[in-house]
Design goal:
- The protein is α+β, with helices and mostly antiparallel strands.
- It has helices at about 20-40, 50-75, 80-100, 105-110, 120-135, 140-170, 185-200, 210-220, 225-235, 250-270, 275-280, 285-320, 330-340, 345-350, 355-370, 455-475, 495-500, 505-510, 525-535, 540-555, 565-575, 595, 605-625, 635-645, 650-660, 665-670, and strands spanning about 175, 205-210, 375, 385-395, 395-405, 415-420, 425, 430-435, 435-445.
- Helices cover about 55% and strands about 5% of the residues.
C-alpha cells in the first residue's frame, strides 16, 4: 500500500498513518530535498527567486509538511511505537535543516538575487532569509561550522527528551482518593475521577496532575492534606524532588546542557549570550530593553499585588481559620474569597459554558467581525473527538482547521495552534494553496453523555488559540515564508491571540454563547455583572507571576552561567518581583516547556509585550463600539486587512501603526487590568 505521508494531493490521511510509515517517507523526502539543494546550488543555476523556489522550496515544503504531521501526532497521540519512530527520525531531519540553513553555496545564491526583481512580499522574505542564514551559521567556517551543526542536533534531541519527561511525569502520577477526601470537588470533576478509577478496576476516585483535574482539586477540595499531596506532586514533576519512581523523569541535567549549548551557539555566532541571538528577529531591540520593560511593569503592578495578598491573608484568617496559609492553600482561599466577595463560583459559571454553544458563539463573533463564514467540513482525523471546519469569504475557500479540545492520555498538556499547511501561490503549478491549521486544547471531556463544560478560563484559552488560527488562516499573502504567522516577529505573534481574549468579557458576545447545561437558559445578566466585577480579581498577583517567568527566562539567557544552578537565579527573581514565596522543593523550571522545548527561549516576555499591543488594538474597537454593544464592522475590516491579512509581509510595528494610526501605548493594558 502507498505511504500516506507521501501523498500531498489532499489533507493528511491520519487514519492510515502508522509509525512504520515514518522512516520510509523521510528516506524519500530527505533524498528529494537533498537533490533539490544540489540542483539550485550548481554553478549554472540562476540566482533567481522564483527559479530557486520552484525547485528547492517545493521539495522542502513537502518535507516540512510530512514531518509536521509526524510531530503533530507525537504531540496529540503519543504511543511507544510512534515515539520511537519520531526519535529515530529527529536527528536526520534536524541535520538536514541545520545544513540547509548554513549552506554557503545557497547563501551566496540568495545574496546574488537582484532585489529589484522581487515583489514587496518577496523582498521581506528575502531579507528574513539572509538574516536566517547568518543565525544558522552560514558565515561560519571549518570546525566552528561543524560544532554549530552538532549543537543544533543535540539541542533538538534534548528538547524532545525534556518534553517527553514533562509528559510522562504528568501521565504517570495518580492518586486514588476516598469519597471523604474529595469533599468539595465539583460534581462533574468527581464523576470523571470516579469513572477513571472504575475503568482501571480501582476503588475511589482517580486524581491526576492533568489541569482539568488538578486545578479543581486545588480550588475546591476542602482537605488541605489532599491539596498538599497534589500540589507537591505537581510542582516537583520531572525533577529531583519528585516522589519515588517519578525521579526517573528528572530534567535537571537536560536544563543544564540545553543552556550550555545555547550559550556556546551564541558565542560561535559572535554574540555575548543567547538572549541577544533570540532578539535579532524580534520587535524588542535588546535584552536590556526587555528587562527594563518587565521591571517597569512589575513596579506598576506591585502595589496592586500587595493589596491582593493582604486581602487573601485577612480573609483566610477571619473566615477560614487559616492563620498561616501554605502554598497549596492559596488557590482554595482565592476561590473562597471570590465566591464571598462576588457571590459566584467558577463552577456556577461553568454550567453555562457548554462546549458546542461556546464554539457557536466564537464563530458568530468571527463571522460578523471579519466577514467570513465557518462551516463543518470533512477530513481524516487522529481521534474521534477531533472536529474539522472550513472558512469561506464570498463563497471562496479561505482556509480550514482541525479542532482537538479534550484532554486525554498521550496528549501533551497546554493549548496551541500549529500550521498544517501554509497559504502559498505555488511556484510548481501556479495554484493557490489554502492554509490549514491545528487548534489544540486540553479541556475536561463531557460526562455521562452530557456536553463538555468549559470554565471561563477555558473559554479564554479557546479564543486565544483561535486568534492564532485566524492570523494563519485569513492571510492574503501569497509568499509562503511571510504568509500568515510566517516571518512575524515572535514578540508580536501573540497580538491576534490575546486580542481575541477580550471578547470573552463582552455581554453581547456572552449572551449568544451561553446555555445552561440542564435548562438551556443563557448566562443571567446578574451573574455576568459579578464576573465583570471579579474580572481583575488578583490581576496584580497574576501580572507579577507572568513577569517572574519572563524575567527568569530573560536573565537565564542573558549572562547566567549555565553550570550554576538556575534555581538560585529563580530565587533572586522571586525576591525581586514575587509577593508570595515558593517552597524550597518547588521546581518550576523542570516543566517550563515554553523555554526548554517550545521556542520561547529568551522570548517568554512576548506574552506581556504583545499584551500591550493587543490591549491597545482592542481599545480601537471599544472606541468605535455601537450604542447597542455591537462592534463596528469597519474597524473589524481594518483590523483584518492591516493585521491578519498582512501576516509577516512587513514589520509588525508597521502593521500596528497601519491599523491604529500610531505606535502602541501602555495605558489600555493597565486600564483593562484595573491597574491604573
Amino acid at each position: 500500500m502507498s505511504n500516506p505521508l507521501l501523498d500531498f494531493s489532499a489533507l493528511p490521511a491520519f487514519e492510515r498513518i502508522t509509525p512504520a510509515h515514518v522512516a520510509p517517507a523521510l528516506d524519500t523526502l530527505l533524498a528529494q530535498a537533498e537533490q533539490a539543494l544540489q540542483s539550485v546550488t550548481a554553478a549554472d543555476f540562476a540566482a533567481d527567486w522564483n527559479a530557486i523556489a520552484g525547485v528547492l522550496d517545493v521539495a522542502t515544503e513537502r518535507l516540512g509538511r510530512a514531518w509536521g504531521v509526524v510531530s503533530h501526532l507525537n504531540s496529540v497521540a503519543d504511543t511507544a511505537e510512534l515515539r520511537a519512530a519520531y526519535n529515530e527520525a529527529l536527528p536526520r531531519v534536524t541535520e538536514f535543516w541545520t545544513r540547509l540553513g548554513a549552506d554557503e553555496r545557497l547563501y551566496a545564491q540568495y545574496k546574488a538575487i537582484d532585489t529589484a526583481t522581487l515583489t514587496p512580499e518577496q523582498r521581506q522574505a528575502h531579507k528574513n532569509a539572509l538574516r536566517s542564514f547568518v543565525l544558522s551559521g552560514a558565515e561560519l567556517q571549518g570546525a566552528a561550522k561543524e560544532r554549530f551543526t552538532q549543537i543544533q542536533e543535540r539541542q533538538a534531541e534534548l528538547s524532545q527528551k525534556f518534553s517527553e519527561n514533562a509528559l510522562d511525569a504528568t501521565d504517570n502520577w495518580a492518586y486514588y482518593a476516598s469519597a471523604d477526601e474529595i469533599d468539595g470537588l465539583p460534581t462533574d470533576v468527581a464523576q470523571a475521577a470516579r469513572a477513571a478509577a472504575q475503568a482501571e478496576g480501582h476503588e475511589g476516585y482517580k486524581l491526576t496532575l492533568k489541569i482539568p483535574c488538578y486545578l479543581p482539586v486545588m480550588q475546591f477540595a476542602r482537605s488541605s492534606a489532599l491539596r498538599q499531596r497534589l500540589y507537591r506532586a505537581y510542582v516537583t514533576r520531572a525533577s529531583d524532588q519528585a516522589e519515588g519512581e517519578g525521579r526517573r523523569f528528572d530534567n535537571s541535567a537536560h536544563i543544564r546542557e540545553i543552556l550550555a549549548l545555547r550559550q556556546e551557539e551564541a558565542q560561535l555566532l559572535g554574540y555575548a549570550h543567547f538572549a541577544e541571538v533570540s532578539l535579532v528577529a524580534k520587535m524588542a531591540e535588546s535584552p536590556a530593553q526587555v528587562i527594563a520593560f518587565l521591571r517597569d511593569l512589575a513596579q506598576r503592578a506591585r502595589p496592586f499585588a500587595e493589596h491582593d495578598l493582604a486581602d487573601l491573608r485577612a480573609f483566610a484568617a477571619s473566615e477560614l481559620g487559616l492563620a498561616d496559609p501554605q502554598p497549596w492553600d492559596w488557590p482554595y482561599i482565592s476561590e473562597k474569597l471570590k465566591e464571598a466577595r462576588y457571590a459566584f463560583s467558577e463552577q456556577e459559571v461553568k454550567q453555562y459554558f457548554t462546549a458546542p454553544k461556546v464554539l457557536a458563539g466564537l464563530f458568530k463573533i468571527v463571522e460578523s467581525l471579519f466577514d467570513v463564514t465557518i462551516a463543518p467540513d470533512s477530513a481524516s482525523r487522529w481521534n474521534p473527538a477531533v472536529q474539522f471546519y472550513r472558512i469561506e469569504r464570498a463563497g471562496q475557500l479561505v482556509g480550514q482547521f482541525y479542532l482537538d479540545q479534550p484532554a486525554r492520555a498521550g496528549k501533551r498538556g497546554g493549548a496551541w495552534m500549529d500550521d498544517a499547511r501554509t497559504r502559498w501561490l505555488r511556484p510548481d503549478n501556479g495554484q493557490l494553496q489554502t492554509p490549514v491549521a491545528y487548534l489544540v486544547c486540553n479541556f475536561a471531556d463531557g460526562v455521562d453523555g452530557a456536553p463538555a463544560l468549559l470554565t471561563h478560563d477555558d473559554v479564554i484559552t479557546l479564543f486565544h488559540e483561535f486568534g492564532h488560527g485566524l492570523h494563519h488562516l485569513l492571510t492574503q499573502v501569497n509568499e509562503r515564508d511571510v504568509s500568515g504567522i510566517g516571518g512575524v516577529e515572535w514578540d508580536a505573534v501573540e497580538l491576534p491571540s490575546q486580542f481575541m481574549e477580550n471578547f470573552c468579557w463582552e455581554w453581547p458576545v456572552l449572551e449568544h454563547m451561553t446555555a445552561h447545561v440542564h435548562t438551556g437558559k443563557p448566562l443571567p445578566r446578574a451573574l455576568y455583572d459579578k464576573m465583570i466585577a471579579a474580572k481583575n480579581f488578583q490581576a496584580g498577583m497574576q501580572t507579577l507571576r507572568q513577569i517572574e517567568y519572563s524575567l527568569f527566562d530573560m536573565l537565564l539567557h542573558a549572562g547566567h552561567d549555565p553550570q550554576q544552578d538556575c534555581l538560585a537565579l529563580l530565587e533572586q527573581v522571586r525576591a525581586e518581583v514575587a509577593v508570595l514565596p515558593a517552597p524550597a522543593f518547588h521546581r518550576m523550571p523542570h516543566t517550563f516547556s515554553h523555554i526548554f522545548a517550545g521556542g520561547y527561549a529568551a522570548g517568554y516576555y512576548s506574552y506581556k509585550w504583545a499584551e500591550v499591543l493587543s490591549a491597545d488594538a482592542y481599545a480601537a474597537f471599544e472606541e468605535t463600539q455601537h450604542s447597542d454593544g455591537n462592534f463596528d464592522s469597519a474597524t473589524g475590516a481594518r483590523y483584518r486587512r492591516e493585521i491578519l491579512e498582512a501576516g509577516g509581509s512587513r514589520p509588525a510595528m508597521e502593521s500596528f501603526k497601519a491599523f491604529r494610526g500610531r505606535a502602541p501605548e501602555l495605558d489600555a493594558l493597565l486600564r483593562h487590568q484595573g491597574m491604573q
